[in-house]
Amino acid sequence: MTFAFQDIRDGAQSRARIYYIQFASLGTGAQYKPIPLPETFFATASEKPFPAISPTR
Predict the structure, then answer these.
(1) How confident is the model at residue 3 (pLDDT cuts 50, 70, 90)?
(2) ∠ at Cα 49 (44, 53), nearest 5°?
(3) In angstroms, rounded to a whole number, what is the distance separating the alpha carbons of residues 42 and 18?
(4) Cβ atoms < 10 Å from Cβ of 12
């Protein structure tokens, strides 16, 4: 599963983080780490990323 999360408790400093996790791990209490991206990956803090999936060949 891929999703973006932005913690509003960080206010104006909040940045979107992208996560890729196994669906089976939901509800297990596991802690997830975001995909490492450069700090300037998103031009503004309010950008809304949408993952795109492409078929394999």
Answers:
(1) confident
(2) 155
(3) 11
(4) 6
Two structure tokens written together for 14: 């909040």
Tell me which residue of 6, 36, 39, 4 sits closest to 19, measured CA to CA.
4
What single DSSP character describes residue 44? S
Q: How far is CA 22 from CA 6, 9, 29, 44, in A?
A: 20, 26, 13, 28
Confirm whether 42 is domain-assigned.
yes
Q: Provide the residue range defining the domain that includes 42.
A: 1-46
The number of distinct structural domains making up the chain is 1
Instruction: Flag whether pLDDT at 45 surpasses 70.
Output: no
Q: pTM above 0.70?
A: no
Tokens coding 24: 């089976």
